[in-house]
Structure formats: C-alpha cells, structure tokens
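In this section we walk through a basic example: taking a raw amino acid sequence and producing a predicted 3D structure, encoded as discrete structure tokens. The instruction is simple. Fold the sequence below.
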Amino acid sequence: MVVHMVLFKVKRGVSRARLVRVMKLIGGLKRTIPGITSYRWGPYSSPEGLNRGYTHGFCTTFRDAKSRNVYLDHDAHQAVVVEVLKILQGGVKGALAFDFEA
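The resulting token sequence is shown next.
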C-alpha cells in the first residue's frame, strides 16, 4: 500500500464552497482511476502550530506503487491538478506531496 499525502497553502479569499468543490474533485478520482483505496481531506487542526502555512491536506491510499504511478500520469488527475493550482498560494509552490509505502 502507498500513502500519498498532499498539503496545500490555500489562497486567502477562496470560498469554502470552492475549496470543497476542488477537494471533492480530487476524491472523485477514486471512481475514475483504479487502485485508489481511500481518500480523506481536511483543514489543519493541530495545536502544535507546525503547519508552516499549509492550511489543508489530503491523504489518498493506493493498492501499490504501480497504481499510484498510473494516478500521477492519468488525464483525469492532470485535469484536477489544473483546478487545484487555481486555489493555491504560489501555484505549485503552494503544495507539498509526500508518499510512503505502508
């Protein structure tokens, strides 16, 4: 299993409705791309204060590395990335991705 964690620095002024729509687009990829086993997202909520400006994040799990690799290059994923970048502070610099095998 591969866990794909992504953190976002969402621009100030992005409405909750727009944010939810984009996060649902990401989650909807589970219906389109095989090998995705789970998806969860939410805002930063820890009292530690170690988020370094990242405001939201999501975790997607994949059956294996091959499934994750298919997802990364999939046209449906690339279309969602375009929408995600529109809400991020600094475009791609407003995202951090980290994967690990569990």
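Looking at the output, two observations stand out. Residues 16-32 form the longest helix (17 residues). The radius of gyration is 13 Å. In the next section we compare this with other chains.
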